[in-house]
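pls design
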């Protein structure tokens, strides 16, 4: 007798590779794939499952950076600051806000690293509510988020209130409701959990935090450019996110920050630098913060690091973030179907939500041998990453990943796991 649960997924009919090719043939985003450097029309090359950690470069960025060296920097020299660069953190911020974040102009900027922006905005938030004594965070948030909030708590004499997050899921509205109180100043959570891919309910949690009179800061590192947000409509106070993940800004490209228009003029950030003042070249005797979002800058903005992200933002403008999300969901569904078909018999479990509405753009597959599997796969030009405990992360970048690539990569995981567990 055949158990119904073991019937192959209709997603894999008539066989996985043919199914993958059919999905590619009907994928409206398929043409974007060949706009990435290193991807040819007819060869998959490296199977890249890590675009959620470091996105691929676009061909347009290769041209843009070369042009910048010769024309932007080489020809314009210091005139570039007046002509374009002084405003670049805000022009790119506004474009990103419109294309992917649901943020009206004047609230989003490109700044320092995610870590530094998290520090600046978190410190600004707790200083805004000085009579409150607690910061709420979760045990499974990314290390930098936990470490720097620990530092801020020491600096300001605050208490950390930890939500114990399920490492195969994430933080729920109920958990947040139980953790906040009239003592809460700030709640810091990730939109998509870096380990499990769990997608938090931002509007519901934001409402709960506001009902407690506190501010919320959302970390969008694993969602920006893949899962849309509606920061204005959801009444989010503060957000930060990476640009070198799904936004393909390149290694160490600077993060973006978002501060709601209601808060901008009322927050003071802790790194008071000359680039954040009302009149930068007046070079006045005292720090006078700019009225707008410029006040969250500190020193000279990293212009070179802001070049490449513009080409991915342009692609998102072209196809729409909802199409990106639709493909992201289809890619993760396909990867899960392949895991059920090929990897479940080898003892692998899916450590990500099966409900697509609660899942971001990556899938984590759990098995005790995954650390070894990952290093064997890297030798074979199949590149996922490994996260404790036992998790192989399959990151799927909707603009650059094809369904065939997913199929080839998952077959490689199956083969590597088979070899390692037979030994
Ligand atoms: C990737 C990531 C970061 C990285 O911070 P950097 O300062 O860019 O190193 C921070 N938070 C989360 C949730 C991340 O996924």
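designed seq:
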């Amino acid at each position: 007798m055949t158990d119904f649960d073991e019937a192959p997924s209709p997603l894999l009919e008539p066989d996985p590779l043919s199914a993958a090719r059919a999905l590619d043939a009907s994928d409206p985003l398929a043409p974007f794939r060949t706009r990435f450097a290193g991807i040819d029309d007819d060869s998959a090359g490296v199977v890249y499952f890590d675009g959620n950690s470091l996105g691929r470069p676009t061909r347009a960025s290769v041209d843009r950076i070369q042009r910048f060296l010769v024309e932007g920097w080489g020809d314009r020299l210091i005139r570039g600051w007046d002509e374009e660069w002084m405003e670049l953190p805000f022009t790119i911020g506004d474009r990103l806000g419109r294309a992917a974040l649901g943020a009206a102009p004047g609230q989003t900027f490109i700044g320092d690293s995610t870590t530094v922006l998290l520090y600046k905005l978190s410190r600004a938030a707790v200083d805004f509510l000085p009579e409150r004594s607690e910061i709420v965070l979760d045990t499974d948030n990314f290390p930098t988020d936990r470490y720097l909030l620990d530092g801020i708590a020491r600096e300001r004499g605050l208490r950390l209130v930890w939500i114990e997050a399920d490492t195969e899921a994430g933080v729920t509205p109920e958990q947040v409701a139980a953790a906040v109180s009239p003592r809460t100043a700030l709640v810091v959570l990730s939109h998509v959990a870096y380990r499990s891919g769990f997608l938090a309910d931002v509007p519901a949690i934001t409402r709960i935090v506001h009902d407690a009179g506190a501010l919320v800061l959302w970390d969008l590192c694993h969602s920006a450019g893949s899962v849309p947000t509606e920061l204005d409509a959801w009444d989010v106070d503060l957000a930060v996110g990476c640009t070198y993940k799904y936004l393909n800004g390149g290694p160490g490209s600077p993060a973006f920050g978002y501060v709601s228009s209601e808060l901008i003029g009322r927050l003071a950030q802790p790194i008071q630098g000359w680039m954040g003042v009302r009149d930068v070249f007046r070079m006045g005797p005292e720090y006078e913060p700019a009225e707008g979002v410029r006040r969250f800058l500190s020193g000279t903005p990293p212009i070179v690091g802001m070049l490449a992200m513009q080409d991915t933002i342009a692609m998102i403008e072209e196809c729409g973030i909802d199409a990106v999300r639709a493909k992201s969901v289809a890619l993760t569904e396909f990867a899960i179907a392949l895991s059920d078909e090929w990897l479940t018999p080898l003892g692998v479990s899916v450590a990500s939500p099966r409900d697509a509405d609660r899942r971001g753009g990556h899938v984590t597959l759990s098995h005790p041998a995954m650390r070894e599997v990952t290093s064997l796969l890297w030798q074979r030009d199949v590149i996922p990453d490994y996260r404790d405990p036992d998790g192989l992360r399959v990151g799927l970048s909707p603009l650059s990943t094809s369904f065939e690539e997913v199929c080839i990569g998952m077959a490689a995981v199956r083969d590597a796991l088979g070899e390692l567990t037979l030994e």
